[in-house]
Structures are given as structure tokens and as C-alpha cells.
Design goal:
Largest sheet: none
Strand content: under 5%
Order of helices and strands: HHHHHHHHHHHHHHHH
Distance between the termini: 54 Å
Shape: globular
Number of helices: 16
């Protein structure tokens, strides 16, 4: 029997697959870095630190990631960009019939509301501006899949909403300020996580081109995209010099372990070049992102 036949429609297993729990590391890493930066600075007289606010930031990031996965699953399928017969990546719930379209629409509403409910208490820690930040996260969560990813803006949004926004806002709700070190660290984090989108779009470049999804990879071409994947990791580590300049040498040195893994994954992508075999590189990239996050956090705390 096929995997699809073993999964009952709208079953807990179907929803678990639709939520894509493996993607949660990408949501966790920027919050981890923001929390570590705030914790270290608070211990050096920068202000008080709240673990409640830290947990709320992490929960908001997790729920928004699941929400984004549901939205992506639903709208890519209805737009014809997620055909089960031509898909190269991991199977999607709507395309496989694991989750009904009406059920997915209801889940999108519920997860969006849940994110807002979890994020609302952050107003107590960060002020009314947290409402605007939350609304922007929700709006661009929808715009990414429905419009902006088709126009090649996906990578920019990853840097902003998986780097700058979560790292800086996580820091801001703790200490009510944002330093140059935090901003640079947030950009580096966004670049690292963008590697996941780049390899995903590199694998899907032929299918995306056929359906008119003009991702950055489709626009740049294969060779330039490969070197862009390589470059985001290198630039992120170079930006890590900001940690050294602020007395956190280990936060600069430890992520070199990530860079080594990143180079090996780049060489593997270059060798495979196309097809479903690139899914192993997608998994390696997710692993590398987590290694980067742990390395930066460990470096900050140990320094």
C-alpha cells in the first residue's frame, strides 16, 4: 500500500504531516538568538529579563510557522503549483488528499487566531507596537504564498521575517531597545535561514518556471543560484564578526562548524544538481541552520 493510502483523511497523522514539524527549527533559531542576546545584555546591566516573554515569542513563532505551512499547502495546491504528480519535494497534505480543502481553510483561520491570542500578551512587555508587528507577520504570511513568492520576493521576506523581525523584536520586548549588534545578528540569521528557501526553490526550479512562479532561483538561473546559496552562509559568518567586536569571540568562532557543514552541503547540491535527490540537501540545510543557532547561542552564553 502507498503512504497516501495508509493515512486517513483529516486524521491526527495527516495534520501532523501538514504542520511539517521539521520546519519548526527555522522558527526557533531566530528567537533563540534574540533571547540569548537579551539575556546576556540584561546580565550586564542592560535591564530585566523575562522568561515569560521569551516563551511567548517562541510560541508565537511556532504557531506562525505552522500557519504559514497550512497557507502554503492550501494556496499552492489551489494555484496548481503543487501537483502531486510533478512534485519533487516532500508530499503535501492537500495535494495528497490527506486533508480536505475545507478543513485546511478552517485550520488556517484557527492557527491565525491562535497566533494572535498568544502574541497579544507581548503588548505588556513590548508596548502597543507589538500589535502592528503581529499584524504585519500575519499579512505577509498570506502575501508570501499568494503573491510575493511568485514574484521573486520570497528570499527578501525570509531575511526580514526569519531574521530581522524575530531576532530584533525578541530582544526588544526584553530590553525595550535594539543595538547594532542585534540588527547585524538578525540579518546574519535571516541569510542562514534563506539557504533553506534557496535549496527548496533550486530543486523546484523547472516546475516553478512551468507554472509561472518566478522565484529568485528561476530569475537568476542555476549556476548563480548555487553560488548564492554558498554566499549566504559565508556572509552570515562574516557578519558574525560583530560578536567578536562586542566581546563575544566564541559567538564568532563556534558558528564556523556550521560553515564547514554548509560548504559540504553546497558541494553535494552542486553534484546532484536536480531531482528528488536534492531533498537530502534540504534536510542537511535544516540541520545546518539548527547547528548555526545552537553555536551562536552557546557562544554568547559561554562568552
Amino acid at each position: 500500500m502507498t503512504e497516501s493510502a495508509n493515512i486517513k483523511t483529516d486524521s491526527p497523522r495527516a495534520w501532523l504531516l501538514a504542520a511539517r514539524p521539521k520546519t519548526l527549527s527555522g522558527a526557533a533559531v531566530p528567537v533563540m538568538i534574540g533571547v540569548a542576546l537579551a539575556f546576556v545584555d540584561s546580565r550586564h546591566g542592560g535591564g530585566s529579563f523575562s522568561w515569560v516573554a521569551a516563551v511567548l515569542c517562541l510560541l508565537f513563532a511556532f504557531i506562525m510557522q505552522i500557519d504559514a505551512n497550512f497557507i502554503n499547502d492550501y494556496f499552492d495546491y489551489t494555484a496548481g503549483a503543487d501537483d502531486a504528480a510533478t512534485r519533487l519535494g516532500p508530499r503535501r497534505a492537500c495535494a495528497q488528499g490527506w486533508v480536505k480543502l475545507d478543513s485546511m481553510k478552517q485550520a488556517i483561520v484557527l492557527t491565525t487566531v491562535a497566533a494572535c491570542v498568544v502574541g497579544l500578551p507581548l503588548v505588556w512587555f513590548g508596548g502597543l507596537e507589538m500589535i502592528l508587528i503581529g499584524l504585519l507577520c500575519v499579512v505577509f504570511c498570506f502575501l508570501y504564498t499568494t503573491h510575493l513568492s511568485y514574484l521573486g520576493f520570497g528570499d527578501l521576506l525570509v531575511v526580514v521575517f526569519f531574521g530581522i523581525v524575530p531576532v530584533c523584536i525578541t530582544y526588544y520586548v526584553q530590553l525595550h531597545t535594539c543595538t547594532l549588534q542585534v540588527v547585524v545578528a538578525s540579518i546574519a540569521c535571516g541569510l542562514v535561514i534563506d539557504g533553506l528557501l534557496l535549496i527548496n526553490n533550486f530543486r523546484d526550479r523547472d516546475v516553478d518556471r512551468a507554472v509561472g512562479k518566478m522565484t529568485l532561483v528561476v530569475r537568476m538561473g542555476s549556476e548563480t543560484s548555487l553560488w548564492t546559496y554558498f554566499g549566504v552562509g559565508v556572509v552570515a559568518c562574516v557578519l558574525g564578526l560583530v560578536f567578536w567586536q562586542n566581546g563575544h569571540l566564541l559567538a564568532f568562532l563556534l558558528p564556523m562548524a556550521y560553515l564547514v557543514l554548509h560548504v559540504f552541503t553546497f558541494l553535494k547540491i552542486r553534484h546532484i544538481n536536480r531531482g528528488k535527490a536534492l531533498n537530502s540537501c534540504l534536510g542537511e540545510t535544516a540541520r545546518n541552520i539548527f547547528v548555526y543557532g545552537v553555536a551562536v547561542v552557546a557562544g554568547l552564553l559561554l562568552s
